[in-house]
Amino acid sequence: GENVEQHPSTLSVQEGDSAVIKCTYSDSASNYFPWYKQELGKRPQLIIDIRSNVGEKKDQRIAVTLNKTAKHFSLHITETQPEDSAVYFCACGGSQGNLIFGKGTKLSVKP
Amino acid sequence: ETGVTQTPRHLVMGMTNKKSLKCEQHLGHNAMYWYKQSAKKPLELMFVYNFKEQTENNSVPSRFSPECPNSSHLFLHLHTLQPEDSALYLCASSQAQTGTYEQYFGPGTRLTVT
């Protein structure tokens, strides 16, 4: 089955700096790669996703890049703000509709 | 957000109790999911229902029993749980036709087994 590795497990940055979180996956049939943000005590919420026919997608300060050949994808957050502090999860999905999640990255943005 | 609701939000139960968690989605989706989220293994997929049919059971112990009476409701029946079952139980739904689509999560039920 699919295996998703996410790094780093914790990340601390200064406000205004960029943050990058990386995930690798094992199943070449995976074709959907969402990123979820979970603030303390709240539900995971989708912030951006990408499909396998696209190499990069951007939405304001967040972007996701996908390298299908290497089977890895990354979340990039620019100009970080304290409200970006949360746990971020990557996930992979295939034709059956299920998502396999990474173990999460706790991002702390220091003011 | 009221797209996916879960009740109760908090539950404390003894190891000999029987309780049920409820999930309801108001998004017109046809797939529903149960996840377990704990400090050691975040977001473990437990059960998947597509069009009310269970399509996946990720080796979950039989003390967890899911029920999906229709495409809008999902239950997780609990009995004789263990302390290590204490976790946040999240329900999610999606519109799964062909391929994978965005999953919307409920707020979760924080379960404590004493």
Walk me through this protein's architecture.
The complex is a heterodimer of chains A (111) and B (114). By secondary structure, chain A is an all-beta fold. Helix content of chain A is 0%, strand content 57%. Chain A has strands spanning 4-7, 10-14, 19-25, 32-38, 45-51, 56-59, 62-67, 72-77, 86-93, 99-101, 105-110. In chain A, the strands form two sheets. In chain A, strands 2, 4, 5, 9, 10 and 11 form a six-stranded mixed beta sheet that branches. A five-stranded antiparallel beta sheet of chain A has the order 1-3-8-7-6, with no helix packed on it. Chain B has 114 residues and is mainly beta. Chain B has no helices and eleven strands. Chain B has strands at residues 4-7, 10-13, 18-25, 31-37, 44-50, 53-57, 64-70, 73-79, 87-94, 104-105, 109-113. In chain B, strands 2, 4, 5, 6, 9, 10 and 11 form a seven-stranded mixed beta sheet that branches. Chain B is globular and about 40 Å long. The termini of chain B are far apart. At the A-B interface, strand 4, strand 5, strand 9 and strand 10 of A face strand 5 and strand 10 of B.
SSE string of chain B, helix = H, strand = E?
EEEEEEEEEEE
Q: What is the helix content of chain B?
A: under 10%
Strand content of chain A: over 45%
Radius of gyration of chain A: 13 Å
What Rg of chain B, in angstroms, do the CA atoms define?
A: 13 Å
Largest sheet of chain B: 7 strands, mixed
pLDDT average of chain B, as an integer? 90
Shape of chain A: globular
- SSE arrangement of chain A, N to C: EEEEEEEEEEE
What does the largest sheet of chain A look like?
6 strands, mixed
Overall residue-averaged pLDDT value of chain A = 93
Number of strands of chain A: 11
- Residue windows where pLDDT falls under 50 for at least 5 positions of chain B: none
